[in-house]
């Protein structure tokens, strides 16, 4: 804005400060990305992550890769998809995908007579 009034040394200083500011912003963005990645991978089990990613259209590049590698790729895909689709978070997107799949599947709960009784309702003899 007032570059014509600045000396060459001041211009250099300003440029260096701008570059440093960009680096700090990028570092903060990378830290946020890593935290989001850790949150997602610690919240959902790997098979669920893979299932959600496949429901969203992701295909593993190599089936022989370990499940951990596939889950990382699936998580990155889901995170980018959540960003593009303006979801509040990646976890919200994964939860919605899994819920929609459960609603569309023909899941039938087990019949009442075959269910085990709740451990909270069973009365145990107490020693007094």
TrEMBL record:
Comp. bias (Basic and acidic residues): 21-38
Organism: Ralstonia insidiosa
Name used for this protein in its record: Uncharacterized protein
Top-rank lineage group of the source organism: Bacteria
Annotated region (Disordered), positions in chain: 1-38, 107-128
């Amino acid at each position: 804005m007032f570059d014509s009034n600045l000396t060459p040394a001041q211009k250099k200083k300003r440029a260096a400060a701008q570059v440093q500011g960009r680096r700090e912003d990028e570092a903060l963005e990378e830290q946020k990305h890593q935290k989001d990645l850790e949150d997602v991978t610690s919240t959902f089990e790997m098979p669920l992550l893979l299932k959600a990613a496949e429901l969203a259209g992701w295909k593993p590049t190599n089936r022989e890769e370990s499940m951990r590698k596939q889950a990382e790729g699936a998580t990155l895909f889901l995170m980018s998809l959540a960003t593009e689709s303006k979801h509040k978070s990646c976890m919200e997107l994964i939860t919605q995908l899994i819920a929609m799949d459960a609603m569309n599947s023909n899941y039938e709960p087990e019949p009442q007579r075959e269910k085990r009784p709740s451990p909270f309702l069973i009365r145990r003899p107490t020693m007094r």
